[in-house]
């Protein structure tokens, strides 16, 4: 189904789209010809500023819907479908790092990804009257790599990988016409990596910072461009590592 790999003329919704990787992905899809971009974010000031920036850069294609991904799924889906009729591409990018509140980490990083994916899968699926589409879930290099740090965050991102590879399995794609794949960014310069909270205030702090420092870093724009590159080739149920200057690779 080659149409699922065509960005030109598509309607794209991005959760956590007001900053960081989410905003970079939104920008990259608009650069490649998306017709409409819906930013979904909890922070209205940040999102309005982001939408204004994107509209100045790409023409008046971006709108913003305030959204708590843990609570507003049904309400926001109705707003989107009433306004735009359909979504061709959903990017589940909202995420936090906060080891002191593992429940919140799991709710935002994993439970919301599962729920939003299932909801939009039902909207998109060709066997129930939809037009097909693509769902992109943000995992992490910490969705498969193990070290002693950020266990709750890792649990959430391992979960995203397991869900996406299972629900995106080729057998499900053949039934639904909806492609689902995961992106695993390496360490990316965003607020997420400067504003994290560990379980103990100084737990393994020096080791942790040293480990981070020794890994390849990248900026959010690298991930945004990487996502649209992967979009054109990824099979359903796959996952892709975007890390530093390394070639993008399947994991």
Tally of structural domains: 1
Cα gyration radius (Å):
17 Å
Shape type: globular
Q: Helix amount, in percent?
A: 40-55%
| Discrete helix count | 9
- Assembly state of the chains shown: single chain
In CATH terms, the superfamily is NAD(P)-binding Rossmann-like Domain
Which series of helices and strands comes N to C?
EHEHEHEHEHHEEHHEHEE
Unreliable segments (pLDDT under 50, ≥5 consecutive)? none
Strand content: 15-25%
- Give the class from helix and strand content and strand pairing: alpha/beta
Number of strands: 10
Mean pLDDT: 90
Largest sheet: 8 strands, mixed
Fill in the CATH topology.
Rossmann fold
Distance from N terminus to C terminus (CA atoms, Å) equals 23 Å
CATH first level: Alpha Beta
Per CATH, the architecture is 3-Layer(aba) Sandwich
Give the spatial strand order of the biggest sheet: 3-2-1-4-5-6-9-10
Question: How would you describe this protein?
Answer:
By secondary structure, this protein is α/β, with parallel strands linked by helices. The protein has one domain (2-241): 3-Layer(aba) Sandwich (Rossmann fold). It has nine helices and ten strands. Helix 1 (20-31) crosses helix 9 and helix 4 runs parallel beside helix 5 (151-167). The strands form two sheets. Strands 3-2-1-4-5-6-9-10 form an eight-stranded mixed beta sheet, sandwiched between helices. It is globular. The two termini are 23 Å apart. It has helices spanning 20-31, 44-58, 73-84, 102-124, 151-167, 170-176, 191-194, 205-214, 220-231; strands at residues 11-15, 36-41, 62-66, 89-92, 133-138, 178-185, 187-189, 217-219, 239-242, 249-250.
């Amino acid at each position: 189904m080659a149409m699922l790999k065509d960005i030109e003329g598509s309607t794209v919704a991005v959760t956590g789209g007001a900053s960081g990787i989410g905003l970079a992905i939104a920008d990259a899809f608009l650069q490649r010809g998306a017709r409409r971009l819906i930013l979904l974010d909890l922070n209205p000031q940040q999102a309005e500023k982001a939408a204004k920036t994107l509209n100045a850069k790409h023409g008046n294609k971006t709108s913003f819907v305030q959204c708590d991904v843990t609570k507003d799924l049904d309400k926001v889906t109705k707003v989107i479908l009433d306004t735009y009729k359909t979504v061709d591409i959903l990017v589940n990018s909202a995420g936090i790092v906060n080891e002191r509140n593992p429940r919140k980490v799991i709710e935002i990083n994993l439970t919301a990804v599962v729920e939003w994916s299932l909801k939009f899968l039902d909207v998109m699926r060709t066997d129930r009257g939809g037009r097909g589409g693509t769902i992109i879930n943000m995992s992490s290099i910490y969705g498969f790599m193990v070290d002693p740090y950020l266990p709750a965050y890792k649990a959430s991102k391992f979960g995203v990988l397991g869900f996406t590879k299972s629900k995106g399995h080729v057998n499900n794609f053949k039934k639904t016409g909806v492609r689902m794949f995961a992106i695993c960014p390496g360490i990316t310069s965003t607020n997420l990596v400067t504003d994290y909270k560990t379980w103990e205030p100084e737990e393994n702090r020096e080791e942790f910072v040293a480990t981070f420092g020794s890994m390849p870093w990248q900026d959010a724009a690298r991930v945004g461009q990487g996502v649209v590159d992967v979009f054109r080739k990824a099979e359903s149920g796959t996952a892709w590592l975007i890390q530093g200057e390394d070639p993008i690779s399947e994991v």
